[in-house]
Design a protein that fits this description.
alpha+beta; 6-stranded mixed sheet; single chain
């Protein structure tokens, strides 16, 4: 008699063949074909739940080796959650109808297909499920999947031994919650605060999206009065040379129409207040924090990661703008100086950044400190606070307070997590993720979609893969955090039974960053591989 794992594989293969045959059927018959494939696949979740842990691990190891195309489909589902609630219906339908060989990797091997993965992740809207109590203390209605969450006792039995790893340092705090209901499933010092490192960017992101909205764009403006032109910084650290060229072209066009061919150029930095220097001092991980800069003040062609930075990012941007004006036939006299634009100056040109949602995704994927500090100041500006480190910290905290989040002992000393004075708790991090995953809060969705994918993207691209081959590859989405002696990880997984979980693991006092990261990755991988419910015979 074939074992359970073989049954699962055989069922998956039948689904693959059915999907392959249906790919050539005319669009008018596509609905029938998809429903037929769904019928074949529907038995997989039950067989999965009946499989032994070792069999589950074998199957997930195979799934973890799927190609990047499959990971994209899978992580889209992970972002929506098995409860879906209609938020990702179109995306799931599109993925299910794609070519069945879309999971083939570059050496020609065929991986799992989107229909198989989607079926495992949970039913489409309308296929069952009941209304949950809201993902965050009843903040909104969510569709609870029929698959129950892990039990607290089984989850504790699984995670507690892993948290004893000496690589995790002297202080270990943890929180795991059900992303459908927001209910705490596992806690170890979950309410205790500690230095979060870059996982504080989750708070920065939620606050900025709440205060500004995901479609807000940061404007860099050019204003003028007579032959005086001012480049006004709005706080966009991602301003590029191309964008400045466009600004210069538009500005020169307007000036030439007015008969102006020579100008005195200045730049306005009054959008921000307070010190430009982060408390860590000059650092390749962060430029001076100013409202006007070109490509984050980088002195190379990189767009993320550590890099040498200019000591005068605003002056660098102004000089680039002056050079582009000259190319457009408008000369500048002298060197641009910093001063406030005249209140009577008229608009000449404007450039708007990518949407705040896109900036949040970029910030989280690459752990971009410059964008983080800019987003914290956008929150301050929206809340009427000074756009400084202190004002941004107050604005972020007050914004999160309105969302009913646990803020006892929390401190936001910056937006990036580079400041060791930051203090957050695992409970706050997991509830931030629950809010972001709530289908009734679509403006927060970039927090989930921006999380790095284990083994594939951003700060997790070199983890969970290679020779280690952790089963969490492609399944774990998480924000990393690293300072000397501090290692953190917070994100989401869909467990072996199809339940979406949010987790946060925080450690202090680590001595080997690589060993600590491996241990944290093992904790997250275990969640992805875990059904973690008590045996029916227990007790």
């Amino acid at each position: 008699m074939p074992d359970t794992a073989s049954k699962v594989r055989d069922t998956a293969n039948r689904a693959y063949r059915a999907a392959s045959r249906s790919a050539g059927v005319a669009r008018r018959r596509a609905g029938v074909a998809v429903r037929s494939a769904d019928t074949v696949i529907r038995g997989i979740p039950q067989r999965w739940r009946e499989a032994a842990p070792q069999q589950r691990q074998t199957i997930q190891l195979a799934a973890g080796s799927a190609a990047v195309g499959l990971a994209v489909a899978l992580t889209t589902v992970a972002a929506a959650g098995p409860w879906d609630s209609g938020q990702r219906t179109a995306e799931r339908t599109w993925a299910a109808e794609q070519r069945p060989d879309s999971g083939t990797d570059h050496d020609g091997r065929t991986g799992l297909t989107a229909p198989q993965v989607l079926a495992e992740a949970g039913p489409l809207p309308g296929a069952g499920g009941t209304k949950g109590g809201g993902g965050a203390n009843g903040s909104g209605s969510q569709r609870a999947d029929k698959v129950p969450p892990p039990t607290a006792s089984a989850l504790a039995d699984t995670l507690e031994p892993l948290l004893e790893d000496d690589a995790l340092g002297a202080v270990r705090h943890a929180s795991v919650v059900d992303a459908v209901t927001g209910r705490q499933l596992f806690a170890q010092g979950s309410g205790e605060t500690a230095a979060p490192a870059s996982t504080v960017k989750l708070a920065t992101a939620v606050a900025a999206l709440t205060a500004r909205g995901e479609n807000h764009r940061i404007a860099t403006r050019v204003v003028g009065k007579g032959d005086h032109v001012t480049l006004v910084g709005g706080g966009d650290p991602t301003l590029t040379k191309g964008a400045l060229s466009d600004l210069a072209e538009d500005t020169a066009h307007t000036l030439r129409k007015r008969g102006v061919r020579k100008v005195t150029l200045a730049y306005d930095l009054t959008r921000y207040t307070g010190t430009e220097q982060h408390p860590i001092g000059p650092n390749e991980n962060l430029a001076l924090v100013t409202p006007l800069m070109l490509n984050e003040g980088r002195l190379d062609k990189s767009d993320h990661g550590p890099a040498a930075r200019t000591g005068d990012p605003a002056g660098q941007a102004a000089q680039e703008f002056a050079d582009r004006l000259s190319e457009e036939g408008v000369k500048t006299t002298g060197t641009a100086e910093s001063r406030k634009a005249s209140g009577s100056a008229r608009a000449l040109a404007v450039h708007k950044s990518a949407t705040l949602g896109a900036l949040v995704e970029r910030m989280l994927t690459n752990s971009d400190n410059d964008i983080a500090e800019a987003l914290a100041r956008q929150t301050a500006l929206a809340k009427g606070e000074p756009a400084s480190f202190e004002g941004a910290g107050r604005a972020v905290k007050s914004t999160l307070k309105r969302l009913g989040l646990p803020l006892k002992g929390v401190k936001f000393a910056d937006g990036s997590g580079l400041n060791r004075a930051d203090r957050v708790s695992p409970a706050l991090l997991t509830q931030l993720l629950v809010r972001a995953a709530d289908p009734d809060r679509p403006t927060l969705r970039p927090v989930i979609t921006g999380l790095p994918v284990a083994g594939f993207t951003g700060t997790l691209d070199a983890r969970y893969g290679g020779e280690r081959g952790e089963p969490g590859a492609g399944l774990v989405r998480a924000k990393t955090g690293t300072l000397t002696g501090v290692n953190t990880l917070a994100g989401t997984v869909v467990d072996a039974d199809g339940r979406m979980l949010a987790f946060a693991f925080m450690t202090t006092g680590t001595v080997d960053a690589n060993a600590a990261q491996t241990s944290l990755d093992r904790l997250a991988s275990t969640l992805a591989n875990c059904g973690c419910r008590d045996s029916p015979s227990a007790g």
